[in-house]
Amino acid sequence: MAEHLHDSDRVRAKTLFATHYHELTELALTLPRIRNFHVAVEERGGEVVFLRRIVPGPSDRSYGIHVAQLAGLPQAVIGRAREILFNLEKAELDDAGSPRLAYARGKGRAADKRQMWLFGEDQRSAALEEVGEALAGLDTGAMTPLEALNLLNRLVERMRQ
Questions:
Q1: Residue of 140, 112, 114, 124 lying closest to 74 (CA atoms)
Q2: Phi, psi of 108 (to 5 degrees)
Q3: Is the pTM value of this prediction over 0.70?
């Protein structure tokens, strides 16, 4: 799409793309009317701070996960994104030479082959989020041992669904 808009003498549209794909930022090296800009970023003690200043050139790295955190995406999604990024950065490839996106944490082998959906929420992620919310809201000091056991059984059943 970027190439088409650039090459079209008829369209001549000023177009803004927001992307973390470094391959797309390289178009500015070969297409004369493309310019790259990015939001200035400062890292302070492992935390990313967006400085609200636009500067020329491509970003030196992707901050998509940080943006997702700021947007309030669930921790399960953020954790999965970090796992995928880690494997991409390590250039972990499967037998077919594709990035090993489903590489199992700490196990050294591919994780299960469940489909990750682009739209809609993975059922297991939804269950984990529900269980996490239930646990976060507990006052364990006010529960009897029987109440705690019953709640634990309900949470385990929710995870098995």
A1: 124
A2: 70, 25
A3: no
